Amino acid sequence: MKSSNAKPSKTNDRHVLSVFSKVLPVVAQELPSAPHGCMEGSCYPATGNLLIGRAINLTATSTCGLEGPEQYCIVSHLQDLNKCFKCDSQKPYDAYHHDNSHRVENVIYQRDGRGELTWWQSVNGEENVSIRLNLEAEFHFTHLIMKFKTFRPAAMIIERSSDFGHTWKPYRYFAYNCTKTFRRIPAHLLRFIDEVICEERYSDIEPSTEGEVIYKVLDPAIHVKDPYSLDIQDLLRITNLRINFTKLHTLGDNLLDRRPDVLQKYYYALYELVVRGSCFCYGHASECTPVPGVTSRDPGMIHGRCVCKHNTVGLNCERCRDFYHDAPWRPAETDNAHTCRECNCNGHSNQCHFDMAVYLATGNISGGVCDNCLHNTMGRKCETCKHFYYQDPTKDIRDPAACIPCDCDPVGSVEGGVCDSYTDLDLGMIGGQCRCKQNVKGQRCDYCKEGHYGLSLDNPLGCHPCNCDPRGITMIGAPCDQISGDCSCKRYVTGRYCNQCLPEHWGLSNDLAGCRPCDCDFGGATNNKCRMDNGQCDCRPHLIGRQCSEVQPAFFCASLDYNKYEAEEIERLIVSTVHRERQPGQMVTWTGPGFARVKDGAGLEFTISNIPYAMEYDIMIRYEPEVCGLKHLRACFETWFVEMPRPFCFEPNNQYVVSIRFQRHAVSHRHLTAFTLIDSLVLIPKYDELPGFQGDDVQDERRRQEMELYMCLDSFMTLPMPALAELCTTLICSISAIMYNGALACQCDPQGSLSAECDRVGGQCHCKPNVIGRKCDQCAPGTYGFGPYGCTVCDCHSQGSVGHQCDPVTGQCPCRHGATGRQCSGCQPGQWGFPNCRQCQCNGHAESCDPETGACYECRDYTAGQLCERCVNGFYGNPILGSGEHCRPCPCPGHPDSGHSNGASCHTDYASNQILCQCGNGYAGPRCNRCAPGYYGVPEQPGGMCRPCQCNRNIDPQDPESCDPQTGQCLRCLYNTDGHSCSECKPGYYGNALAQDCRRCTCVTAGTIDGYCTDGVCHCDKRTGQCPCKPNIIGHNCDNCAPNHWNFGSDAGCEPCECAQPNSLSTHCNRFSGQCHCQPGFGGRQCTECEAFHWGDPRVRCEECNCHPLGSEMAQCDRVTGACVCKKEASGSRCEECARGFTGIFPKCIPCHPCFQLWDDAVCQINRDLTHIKDVIAMILEKGVVPGVSDSRIRQLEKNLHTVGGTKTNERENHLFIHSFTQAVNVFCRFCFTEQLENIRKYYQISLNSEQRCNASVYGPQSPVEQSEDTRKRTEALLKGRKDSFMRTVTANKKSLSELEEKTREIDRKLTNLNNRVCGGHGNASANSSCPDSPCGGAGCRDSDGVLKCGGKGCKGTVGASLKALDNAEDVHKNLTATSEELQTILRDIATLTQTVKTQAKDTLDKAQGKKELFENSNKMLKDFIQKIRDFLNEEGADPESIKKVAQQVLAISLPVNRTVILNIIEQIKANIANLTNVEGVFKHTSEQLAKIKDLLKRAQDAKVSDNINKTKEALETSQNAITKAEKKITTALENLKNAQNITNTQKMQQQRDELADLEKNVTEVREYIRVKVMSYNNCQ
């Protein structure tokens, strides 16, 4: 391996280099930049190399020769001793005495005073070595440059410290193999500005010397939103910098042999180290001075102590000056210096500090807080008086005597007499006003507030609160006495604090009376007391509600007639009972089941033993008169209830018997035929004897009046009882609660009632149908069968029964003679026709019949029919009584009991005297001995039977050939089914064959795996229809690429997009072109390259191609090298020169004369020979052996070379050296170098002449050097006088120009981007606006006729895409229109000829069979065409370019039959029309297919043209938006240029304005051009 890091030799001509000894140290360094002057915003000191002047602060952990001389070698020529050198760093480097010292300070300057290279070098073989720079203060570090003498390190780390070496953080890792060396450090591209990554770019083994490592703290590729943010400033701030070399690059021999002579060639050697930075002042200083204790004053040294401005102080301007703390200290920004503001203490203090909480509370306005306020003042700004002082209203707060003492009563004031320190009416403050305790008032705070009492010194509140409940006190006067504290209560309120209600009251509130009466129900509650908080009364059992006036669910209140006793239910009743049925809609005027029928003069005894309450009761009898037998007599009675003349007293727990005799009024004798229907006896309580009625107070009187007024008692005298008034219900419930001590349980029968609830008054349960009784526990008269569904009506037959009542359990009615059944509605056995019963007529074949119709039951002897008058199925004969015949079995073919009968019935055909069978389902034949169509089997054999063909309903059951009659195999499957049982779809179809739902597979051939589609038929999954897709293709029909894939239609399926991240906007790409959607600045299909018409590495920098349009094949150059693809006649990096073999002025290049080729061959041969000589010399230098030359000759040549070295100053000796060298070369070279030697002599003479001229120009008073030195001194004197003014002007102009240039470049970039998007070219117009390097035109570009040029064929801009889409739409429209017209013509012709063919072609099918096949092929091709159009219509997401591609494929398909072919076929059909058959079906099928084609073509035409129009409109709208944005940017730029007019050069500004005016004009022209295109496009529609 070769190496160029050999130690440089010393030259004897040092006097030639001495002239440059003063300037070399400066040339080797980056000069300090000019300081950024402080104007309205931040200011920054000059930047430079932080190493200058800090050699003492630069250390290395390993340096060769510090302990003594050490030997080191270069990589090659280890066998030569003169290839190894000594390193002796015991003393500092000296160019004349210690030039082999390689201490670390050598890296500050690359060369010494003689111009010789200097370097630092580590100890041999030591890998972990560090170089550290310790700074005396905080500095701003921007970037670092290292130039190595040896290989660059295989691994290294750059670290920083901002706390003077206490903690360290890494900046960047470098390694030849990051993954292997630093496994935990990411090795991807930088994504965030402060991300720590590993980089491999600067760690390669090549180059072997002068390899550089460059690190920038702020990577230009990462946009920094706010360069003045704390994070960025912290990233740039350092106090120490450390470079850790962790791995050497070796050739591998050190792994096997660790001897010192092997390691002598592996070490770190660094020519130069540049640490670029500036003094770190947070933007508050433009210059810096040396830090105290630093004595170095080297030229170009960057000092560390800031000369602070903006009222800041500190080594780095890191804090505000004393008494300048009204605003927080912040780093300065470009537009805001964040100057520290002076505190305002109103002249009472000269000290303050900053308080962030105060600053935030004031809305970021002021945060200064004064310290040690004087003159009895206090506050943040000493703006208020101290406690016990207040501001004199006649004096300003800044007056030293502004605060005077307070005058407050110490008993009633807080803090011993504090008053308001100043007057502020908005806050209710008056200067000198005392601050009273909470419950004290008065100017001196000497008496209690209203609502308080007892002023005292010990009470922290001053006075005690009255504690009166505000709801219970009156609102007139003070709430309590100021001495005793007693409260004034409302009418129904009591207690010291008025917080309790009086007895029988509740609900303390703000009402006028304070509390409300309990108002408990007089019967439902035990008393009139209630709870004070919620008013709840004490209720009797099963009564609820606050007032105890509500009944608990499943309970009721007893009505006034609750104690009633039914007459018909009296035990040992000697009179008859009358049960009355309840008819629907009939008014029920009685209670219970019915009445007791009492004869005139007879009596009844009622037993009473359930008296609830001891009191008097009125006895009432309910009855109804029975009409007398004599029709002329009046009704016997006029009233239906009668009340005893006086009440009777009844008591609980006693049994009473009440005997009553019933006799007509005002008669003395009984009438034997007169009867009375007694319903019940009722006890009516005398309620006026109960509590709540018997008293004389107002409430009792009111209740008695309400009972009479609302006729509450009268409502119970009549039946049915009318609806009770709500007030009556309440009063009756109160009476019931007193009598029964609460509410009564409903006790509804669960079988007879609908629910457990009953009526609130009376307790009547809700009964099921035909159920009666209060508890719903018995059947109503005329019903029976009490159960879960109620009772059933007896429904006794009116003619068959003797009454309407039935047994209540069984429901049996009392029958008349001859009637039978539960309802007495049937005849005796063997008879029918109730009530006119007759004997059954069954021809002797049965004994019983239907009682209503007379149809016979259970006919015998194989007979059937209503009268057993015919034979059953399977038998034949005449079974009518007297015929003499019987029923015999049918022979079909066997009799019914033989197991071989297939007929359902048979009959005798008397004409043929044959027995004809009626075959069962699936059988056929006269004797049912064969299977019917759709069935199979061997019915002719005993035991054989016909079964349905198992074809899953997919055959025609009437077709004899639909299935095999013997085996049952399906032969003619319908509905596109197939298989032995027609149970699956036939090939090319899918679905559910069992549901007659087989559909054709709709696979897209381009996306389906090869081999699954043949002859237009594709195979898919027979169940789901899923087509077998190629790799990365999805969709039911294989019609789409999988997400993030493209190139649909290729043989290998879709390919992955592989869009590079984060260069692309998403992972998706165009499904046809594969183009990813790239971020700005990136291009290529996968966004891994620079954008269009650029080249380079997008991670580093992209350069514009600038290929000459006349010399290059395309505008895009090689994306890696930038080389343009030149035409044959062009060459050069930009194809802007005539190529070799051509002559003329580009671009007019013409081929050279044919003789050129001959000379060119000769020159090439010479070049090859010279290359061979060079290789031979290199081999000699490498191996030390001269081919074909002896050792003696080599020694002679070496002697001659030595002679050459000692005779450089003598011209004659130089000629001898040239002569000797020429002879030596002629010995071992076989080529003639006469011409080359002459050149050497000529160039040597030129060199001598140049040396003489150089000496003359350097030495002497009139030499240019002397004159230059004098001029320089005079210039320095002038500059010194005007340096400050000039530097400020230059700095301001530079800043303004740089800003203008940046804005101009930004506008150029945006305009170029706009041109690319709109026109497809960058639009760099030349002087004549021809834009030769932008074929697609752009802003300002015109063609040869002077017309604005934008877009065109092959251009990717919006205009080009719009025009292309418009052309495509027009082409598609024309092609589809022509195709549609041609098909319509064909349809009309076929429709005209079809009728003629239909009427004439009947006989010759054989001759037309060939023509039929031709039509079928045509139909197949038409179906393919339809399928392609359908696939296109189903496409989604295709851009105009893709639409064009698909449209061209569709249009490329030619119709299989044109008009001429069809006319020829028609002529042939006419010629053979006499023999043609089955034409109707053929032409009907053709007409249907052509109709479908017509419809699909119409849909395709509408969809495609509409789609192109929409996409064109979208593209034009995008162009319009882009132009609008560009106009806004240009307007903004013009405004910025106007603002900068006073501080920039007038000529430069005029040039910028002219350029921007041209740009604005060009953009306006582009906009007008697009607008014209849009208008013309709209007119086309």
How would you portray this structure in words?
Residues 279-342, 343-405, 406-465, 466-517, 746-793, 794-839, 840-889, 890-948, 949-1000, 1001-1056, 1057-1104, 1105-1151 form the Laminin EGF-like domain. It is found in: Secreted, Extracellular space, Extracellular matrix, Basement membrane. It comes from Cyprinus carpio carpio. The chain is an alpha+beta fold. Among the domains are: 53-280, Jelly Rolls (Sandwich); 537-793, no CATH class; 1092-1152, Tie2 ligand-binding domain superfamily (Tie2 ligand-binding domain fold, Beta Complex); 1159-1185; 1191-1259, no CATH class; 1315-1569, no CATH class. It is built from 20 helices and 85 strands. Strands 1, 2, 5, 6, 7, 8, 9, 10, 11 and 12 form a 10-stranded mixed beta sheet that branches. Strands 36, 37, 38, 40, 41, 42 and 44 form a 7-stranded antiparallel beta sheet that branches. Helix 14 (1283-1318) packs antiparallel against helix 19, helix 15 packs antiparallel against helix 19 (1479-1539) and helix 16 runs parallel beside helix 19 (1479-1539). The radius of gyration is 62 Å and the shape is flat. The two termini are 74 Å apart. The model is unreliable at 1-31, 628-639, 1204-1218, 1220-1234, 1454-1458, 1473-1479, 1540-1549 and 1576-1581 (pLDDT under 50).
List keywords for this structure.
1581 residues, alpha+beta, Jelly Rolls, ten-stranded mixed beta sheet, seven-stranded antiparallel beta sheet, 20% strand, disordered N terminus, disordered C terminus
**Largest sheet, strands/sense/barrel:** 10 strands, mixed
What's the overall geometry?
A: flat
What Rg is obtained from the alpha carbons, in whole angstroms? 62 Å
Summed up, the helix count is 20
Helix percent band: 10-25%
Name the structural class: alpha+beta
Which blocks of ≥5 consecutive residues have pLDDT under 50? 1-31, 628-639, 1204-1218, 1220-1234, 1454-1458, 1473-1479, 1540-1549, 1576-1581
Strand content: 15-25%
- Give the end-to-end Cα distance, rounded to a whole number of Å: 74 Å
Task: Please tell me the overall pLDDT.
Answer: 79
Q: What is the strand tally?
A: 85
